């Protein structure tokens, strides 16, 4: 993926974030999401790719734009695209930190076509790569990660969603001696932070959406970290879809509009001769072209 295209993808997420930025704290999560979807879809038409949305806003009959199977782009290399124009709509509506606009791009056939279902996830950064096992007890994973990071378990911070389904995990983590940072919504951002040194996040663990898991896995792959995931199908139809998936080299681009540790998000200020001034920071991380499947 060349640098020129990479920067075009940055502009796609940037457009979604800017369009949605004025909705922060206004209590309308659906309205915020629609603004981001419209802006992202329009910007895709300017990018020289032949893209197919494999993870989007839903099936064709559920979403007017960025639906699964929709073709986007102005023509060029064939790629698969995973999008979440607003990862954390509740966060935007409530004016809370952690919301991002995010897309993952991969050569055609290389992105996991994850259905809208739950997925168990565990993720760490590059220094702890190879130290996690999704099937192992939490305490064992924490001890391995602590050793890799040259820390005590008590010095680790683990992020997970504040959900009743995680109460058992919370007890295990605290019994092992680690600290917990609970989040209300949006697990892509904290998984990205687990892959970046100095954010204060040493591990992410828990069950969340599978589409978001694909986006997070793309980020961790780009950052050189480690993530393991396990789909949790609830019926035979979901099991069948799981059998037809593949994953490979990807890039992830994100634009943040509410602060979460390493990204400041969007802020507004009054300036002379400027009615709506906005500052936005965005991350652009790219995987090694030789990383393979």
Question: Can you characterise this structure?
Answer:
The chain is α+β, with helices and mostly antiparallel strands. It is built from eight helices and 13 strands. The strands form three sheets. The chain has a six-stranded mixed sheet with strand order 2-1-3-4-10-13. It has a five-stranded mixed sheet with strand order 7-6-8-5-9, with helices on both faces. Strands 11-12 form a two-stranded antiparallel sheet. Helix 1 (3-21) packs antiparallel against helix 2 and helix 6 packs parallel to helix 7. The longest helix has 19 residues, at 3-21. It is globular, with a radius of gyration of 19 Å. Residues 256-262 and 268-293 have low confidence and may be disordered.
Gist of the model:
By secondary structure, the protein is of the alpha+beta class. It is 31% helix and 27% strand. β11 and β12 form a beta hairpin.
